[in-house]
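Page 42, continued from yesterday. The earlier attempt failed because a stray header line got pasted into the input along with the sequence. Redoing it now with the clean sequence only.
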Amino acid sequence: MFVEDPAIVLDELAIILPLGTKSRRPEAASIAQELAKFRKLACVDLPGQVEGGDVFRVGRRLFAGLSSRTNAEGIRQLASILTPYGYQLSVLTLPAACT
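This time it went through. Structure tokens are written below.
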């Protein structure tokens, strides 16, 4: 299990993600159960898909790459969750060789 893929953990909350790889989606439940002990949880819901490996953070700005595992609906939901906490989200279109 790549523990950075099913969640994004910030100071204020943890965001549970529906992975783009269908066989890996059950991983999110076990990560959520543990993170709930330490953070408020928010979730991106299907049909949105985000994998944490497609997201990186610099200060209060996150960058999310559109890929075969992260779709536009997932990024839209992620931005909606982040905005009330003062985070900005920038979308990157990844070259086909990276997706």
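Notes: The longest helix spans residues 72-82.
Reminder to self: strip header lines before submitting.
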